[in-house]
Amino acid sequence: MTARPDRTRHHTELINGTLTPRPPQRSWHSRMVTAPTSTLMNQAPTGMEIEREHRTRTGPLTAPPTP
Protein backbone atom coordinates (compact mmCIF):
# COMPACT_ATOMS: atom_id res chain seq x y z
CA MET A 1 0.00 0.00 0.00
CA THR A 2 1.30 3.44 -0.88
CA ALA A 3 1.18 6.23 1.68
CA ARG A 4 -1.22 9.00 0.72
CA PRO A 5 -0.25 12.22 2.53
CA ASP A 6 -3.26 14.08 1.08
CA ARG A 7 -5.61 11.78 3.01
CA THR A 8 -3.99 12.43 6.39
CA ARG A 9 -5.77 15.80 6.58
CA HIS A 10 -9.21 14.26 6.23
CA HIS A 11 -11.22 11.72 8.14
CA THR A 12 -10.54 8.34 6.53
CA GLU A 13 -12.44 5.12 7.16
CA LEU A 14 -11.44 1.57 6.32
CA ILE A 15 -14.44 0.16 4.43
CA ASN A 16 -14.22 -3.33 2.94
CA GLY A 17 -10.43 -3.15 2.98
CA THR A 18 -10.29 0.22 1.18
CA LEU A 19 -9.25 3.51 2.75
CA THR A 20 -12.14 5.85 2.00
CA PRO A 21 -11.92 9.62 2.60
CA ARG A 22 -15.02 10.96 4.32
CA PRO A 23 -16.30 14.54 4.58
CA PRO A 24 -16.34 16.24 7.99
CA GLN A 25 -19.17 14.98 10.19
CA ARG A 26 -22.18 17.14 10.94
CA SER A 27 -23.16 18.20 14.44
CA TRP A 28 -25.86 15.49 14.68
CA HIS A 29 -23.15 12.85 14.19
CA SER A 30 -21.17 14.28 17.07
CA ARG A 31 -24.25 14.18 19.33
CA MET A 32 -25.05 10.60 18.28
CA VAL A 33 -21.53 9.49 19.20
CA THR A 34 -21.30 11.56 22.38
CA ALA A 35 -24.55 10.29 23.93
CA PRO A 36 -23.61 6.58 24.18
CA THR A 37 -20.00 7.47 25.05
CA SER A 38 -21.19 9.61 27.95
CA THR A 39 -23.60 6.89 29.11
CA LEU A 40 -20.85 4.27 29.04
CA MET A 41 -18.48 6.57 30.96
CA ASN A 42 -21.11 7.07 33.67
CA GLN A 43 -21.77 3.33 34.00
CA ALA A 44 -18.25 1.95 33.61
CA PRO A 45 -16.70 0.31 36.67
CA THR A 46 -13.98 2.24 38.50
CA GLY A 47 -10.69 1.95 36.68
CA MET A 48 -12.23 1.20 33.28
CA GLU A 49 -11.70 3.77 30.54
CA ILE A 50 -14.06 4.40 27.65
CA GLU A 51 -12.60 5.54 24.33
CA ARG A 52 -14.74 7.47 21.89
CA GLU A 53 -12.59 6.65 18.85
CA HIS A 54 -9.49 4.69 17.99
CA ARG A 55 -6.89 4.47 15.26
CA THR A 56 -6.21 1.28 13.36
CA ARG A 57 -2.81 0.72 11.84
CA THR A 58 -2.87 -1.68 8.90
CA GLY A 59 0.75 -1.06 7.92
CA PRO A 60 3.76 1.10 8.80
CA LEU A 61 2.47 4.15 6.89
CA THR A 62 -1.31 3.79 7.11
CA ALA A 63 -2.26 5.13 10.54
CA PRO A 64 -3.32 8.79 10.56
CA PRO A 65 -1.24 11.16 12.68
CA THR A 66 -2.18 11.61 16.31
CA PRO A 67 -3.82 15.03 16.79
Estimate the strand proportion: 5-15%
**Main beta-sheet strand count, sense and barrel state:** 2 strands, antiparallel
Number of helices: 1
Low-confidence stretches: none
Give me the secondary-structure category: alpha+beta
How far is the first residue's CA from the last residue's CA? 23 Å
Helix percent reads 25-40%
- What would the average pLDDT be, to the nearest integer? 76
- The overall strand count is 2
What sort of overall outline do the alpha carbons produce when their principal axes are compared?
flat
Q: What strand order characterises the main sheet? A: 1-2
The radius of gyration is: 15 Å
Order of helices and strands, N to C? EEH
Question: What this model shows, in words?
Answer:
The protein has one helix at residues 27-43; strands at 11-15, 18-22. It is α+β, with helices and mostly antiparallel strands and 67 residues long. The protein has a two-stranded antiparallel sheet with strand order 1-2. The two termini are 23 Å apart. The mean pLDDT is 76.
How is this fold's topology laid out?
Elements: E1 11-15, E2 18-22, H1 27-43
Antiparallel strand pairs: 1-2
How would you summarize what this structure contains?
This protein starts with 10 loop residues before the first strand and ends in a 24-residue tail after the last helix. The model has no long low-confidence stretch (mean pLDDT 76).
Spell out the key features of this protein.
25% helix, alpha+beta, 2 strands, 67 residues, 15% strand
